[in-house]
Amino acid sequence: MRLSDEELDLIQTYVESVRARAAALGFSMTLSSDPDAFVDFLREQEATHGVSSIHDPSKCHITPDNFAWFRVDRFGAGVACHAIRMIETDDFIEEVRTHRVFGDIEVPWDFEDVGLYPEAYDLRFAGRIGIGGGLWIHPDCRGQNLSSVFSKLLRIIGIRRFRLDHYVSFVLNTGKRQQWSLQSNGQARIPPLLNGYYPPYGAKTDILLTHCTREEMLMQVRQELAASEAAISASRTAGAHQPMGERA
Question: 111-139 burial, b if ≥16 CB within 10 A, otherwise e?
């Protein structure tokens, strides 16, 4: 679906807003479409979960046409990164069931059932799907809600770069991850996906699928920008009504 001029302006306004906030905290951001550079960067960092096969160009057909990532630096050192891969499909759940989303370069002889939850069979969405992953924050920078900010930023860049219809990510089925996905990360829904063989881990794993549509992502950005503008306006109004002798 074609993006409107208003939507493109909205995306750029949001990108500029996040970059300005990051710069005020001393962060610089670099956006790239080089998957090998992403893999090299993440593998060099401490306290990561490694590079998932979903975003590994040695496991999947990943090129600059379907991949983007950014790194964040502070004081000349890398402190964060996040990646997105786009696939086009007529049935995303079939990409999961057949393992193709986890690796589509080699053709395996063997197959293990991913163990879809019954409700996952009813999930039906297709088109241009952005798959997020490789979100890493340096331990010294955690606890500042940066993972939420950076995840939302990459989703919205993905809409412009790949004309996404949907955004998804795979997360462990834990209470903490559910809370973060819905409350902090702004995902619209997190249905149970599978509780069987999970190819990136090579073992039985309980996995949720976070999911939001293009319309939901854009609405979230509109709301955040409106809330930010309202807060700035309220601050200016309060300052204007403050007695002269009490102003800083």
Answer: eeebbbbeebeebeeebbbbbbbbbbbbe
